[in-house]
Amino acid sequence: AQVLREAIGRADIVITTADAGPGSLRAAMYYVTDNPGSMVRFDIPTNDPGYSNGVFTIHLSGHVPTPDSDAMVIDGSTRPGFTNQPLIVVDASQILPETFTSDTLLIYSANNQVKNISLWGFDWNGVTLLYADATNNTIAGCWIGVDATGSNAAPNAYQGILIANGASRNFIGGSNVLSGNSQYGIYLPDSNPTGHLVN
């Protein structure tokens, strides 16, 4: 409780599964974008309406913000009680469809880290790394395309992770689970992808 009280005053700590407003993932991502060096952390209480069966589900209703400045860190392992699988689920299945935009966690900048969260229900890819500035990013410990048990498919409509259009030297590893997506787990369509490490 003391940790939560301290967290309420910190705009980089997610304290609710609400899609928007103070303490939301969306608000924390905007804050970290404007305050380089801070990190999106999680301290959602278990009485939150998005808590069930040990996990916290954030139901997005609109596009997830894009890490468009270098070195954003989103780390689900900061939620107290984390051991070896994500406790934070980002569910995009309720996003209202739009004519010209597909939904994904889009990264087109450098040195970002997305760690220890689940991503499912996007109508494009779970994570998309695009363009030449998308370099030295890390996707680690994430479950992409499976439900919170790790046993059932919760697909993204295309790839788990797409890396394309000149993105280079990105690290995909650290016990990711990429399964259940409608197409590939990881897809690198460029003719000569450069320097990626997948383990």
Structural write-up:
Helices cover 9% and strands 25% of the residues. The chain has helices spanning 2-8, 25-34; strands at residues 13-14, 41-42, 51-52, 55-59, 73-75, 88-91, 105-107, 113-115, 118-120, 127-130, 138-140, 143-144, 161-164, 171-173, 177-178, 186-187, 197-198. The chain contains two helices and 17 strands. The strands form four sheets. The chain has a six-stranded mixed β-sheet with strand order 3-4-6-9-12-15, with no helix packed on it. It has a five-stranded parallel β-sheet with strand order 5-8-11-14-17, with no helix packed on it. A four-stranded parallel β-sheet has the order 7-10-13-16, with no helix packed on it.
Largest sheet composition: 6 strands, mixed
Radius of gyration: 16 Å
Beta percentage is: 15-25%
Unreliable parts: 1-8
The topology string of helices and strands comes to HEHEEEEEEEEEEEEEEEE
Q: What is the tally of beta strands?
A: 17
User: Level of helix content?
Assistant: under 10%
Helices, strands, pairings?
Layout: H1 2-8, E1 13-14, H2 25-34, E2 41-42, E3 51-52, E4 55-59, E5 73-75, E6 88-91, E7 105-107, E8 113-115, E9 118-120, E10 127-130, E11 138-140, E12 143-144, E13 161-164, E14 171-173, E15 177-178, E16 186-187, E17 197-198
Parallel strand pairs: 1-2, 4-6, 5-8, 6-9, 7-10, 8-11, 9-12, 10-13, 11-14, 12-15, 13-16, 14-17
Antiparallel strand pairs: 3-4
Please supply descriptive tags for the structure shown above.
single chain; 25% strand; 6-stranded mixed beta sheet; 5-stranded parallel beta sheet; 2 helices; mainly beta; 199 residues; 17 strands; disordered N terminus; globular
